[in-house]
Fold each of these.
Amino acid sequence: GAVVSQHPSRVICKSGTSVKIECRSLDFQATTMFWYRQFPKKSLMLMATSNEGSKATYEQGVEKDKFLINHASLTLSTLTVTSAHPEDSSFYICSAPRRTYNEQFFGPGTRLTVL
Amino acid sequence: LAKTTQPISMDSYEGQEVNITCSHNNIATNDYITWYQQFPSQGPRFIIQGYKTKVTNEVASLFIPADRKSSTLSLPRVSLSDTAVYYCLVGGLGNQGGKLIFGQGTELSVKP
């Protein structure tokens, strides 16, 4: 079946550094991908829509300069958390819809811990 | 995008049938109803999807009434491994490119 992968699965960094998270659709092309953030015991919160070949669309309240999104190809979207701070520590999940089946596949998530 | 409402939590015992109902009063004509399962520290996993009436697969059934303003996920005989959070989502490729907004989900706890 269709698979979406994320890399890395977990990352620990110092405050002030930038962290890049990759999301790949492994056996289908995705012109659109979505990025979510999830805090402990909470639901997924949509951050932004990643669009291949154009700018990402951010949800209200999400800082676009803080969370840089690049959708460089039909199978890869990256989320860069710039100048990370402890409050950015969270579980980041991406998803990609597969057009043929009107189905959305989620990545396994990336646990970010900022010290 | 339509908002969804589900019970926050449910308890069950192994071997029982569990039914989780979700309301989505503002569902659009081109929206599908999809249920996902999520375990801690994992991404959501697709369970079942439907548009109307009843859909059944190897793990669950989905019941959708004619007005489509609600849906019920039925897990036939739950086991301890079905303890997870279940999300009902409404949307589709024809609606903002497949954008999905998660509600609070239902935390299902299965006891021995």
Amino acid sequence: DVKVTQSSRYLVKRTGEKVFLECVQDMDHENMFWYRQDPGLGLRLIYFSYDVKMKEKGDIPEGYSVSREKKERFSLILESTSTNQTSMYLCASSPLTGGLTEAFFGQGTRLTVV
Amino acid sequence: KNEVEQSPQNLTAQEGEFITINCSYSVGISALHWLQQHPGGGIVSLFMLSSGKKKHGRLIATINIQEKHSSLHITASHPRDSAVYICAVKIYIGRGSTLGRLYFGRGTQLTVWP
């Protein structure tokens, strides 16, 4: 059973704290993605990575950074959280093998910044 | 500007009704995904298609590449079908022919009453 695992389901942090969201996949996928999901806006791409130590900005990278030191692990870093980063964060992975490749999603981390 | 438009945003049905959710997109794509998200956050892939029609149980997905339109149908709807349904299109992003990313519609909240 293929799996994308996010380290936390729920997090509550204070403004200004540093937050690490971890994502691990066991499918040997090259591509990994971080999204945030907000009501009425759908999923928006923050960062993605197509290989170890590679990263690309998505549509809303401001306030975030990422790390991919190993193929199976993709971390999203919020250096100094703000209340507007309260959201559902979803990680996904997919193989690098052409167009018709399925994406697999983690269960999501609901982050609340107070 | 959103590359993927989904309708309706909210849909309420009685158990047994036939349901259709529509998705239109504005760019050339390599594939289209229909995703399901239950309360709690996890997203699962229902269909991935690049042409024609696919069927899985009571769910049917169709795509018309020329018209840039896809539909998700649910026959004999059931309360357990209540979820958010998300359309996503995969677009190559230019770094070789195998690197793609997803653009998402804003989702359709389906509620099926017994």
